[in-house]
Design a protein that fits this description.
Layout (H helix, E strand, L loop, with lengths): L7 E7 L4 H17 L3 E7 L8 H13 L3 H9 L2 H7 L1 H10 L4 H10 L3 H13 L7 E4 L2 E4 L7 H14 L1
Helix pairs in contact: 2-3, 2-5, 2-6, 5-6
């Protein structure tokens, strides 16, 4: 009997200047540890207008992702949301350098806008399904809004994941 399920997908709508998304990081790490490859966690962009560097950060993330370090980049930037607010693109390039990424490519991606379509597409999809704040999780068609409180969300995600993997 074949027990290999396709991975369950968890979309996390977030933005890299959002302190709530930073707090969600420990839940996402715990989920990765618990499920490994059985749960695919996808970071989806939803930059909020109140955070003026979130849009640039989303583009820088896409470049880091292309260079193979998306998760590490997101975590590093989220750990410094206040600094991002103060320093903007300078910090985005600095973090890329700390992770050994090609900072020239990150800088030019911010200038030439090569990742704008990906960011805009995520944001449009988020709006279409009712995302209003970050982080918002979507798993198996259920939307869980973490912008108000993270309380109980990880447990709910685990419940749904366990059910889907058992199916």
């Amino acid at each position: 009997m074949d027990n290999t399920h396709p991975p369950v997908t968890l979309d996390v709508w977030c933005e890299l200047q959002c302190p709530d998304c930073h707090r969600a990081g420990s839940d996402l790490r715990a989920l990765r540890e618990r499920y490994g490859d059985a749960l695919e966690i996808r970071l989806r962009h939803f930059p909020l207008e109140k955070h003026k560097h979130a849009y640039a950060a989303a583009q820088a993330f896409e470049e880091a992702y292309e260079q193979g370090r998306g998760d590490a980049y997101a975590e590093a930037v989220l750990a410094r949301t206040a600094e991002l607010g103060a320093r903007g693109e300078e910090l985005l390039v600095e973090v890329a350098g700390e992770l050994g990424l090609d900072t020239g490519e990150v800088e030019s991606a911010l200038i030439d806008g090569r990742h704008l379509l990906a960011v805009d597409a995520d944001q449009a999809e988020g709006k279409a399904i009712g995302v209003t704040g970050t982080p918002t999780y979507v798993i198996d068609g259920e939307r869980l809004d973490g912008g108000k409180s993270q309380e109980g969300l990880r447990e709910r995600i685990e419940e749904i994941t366990d059910r889907l993997l058992a199916g």
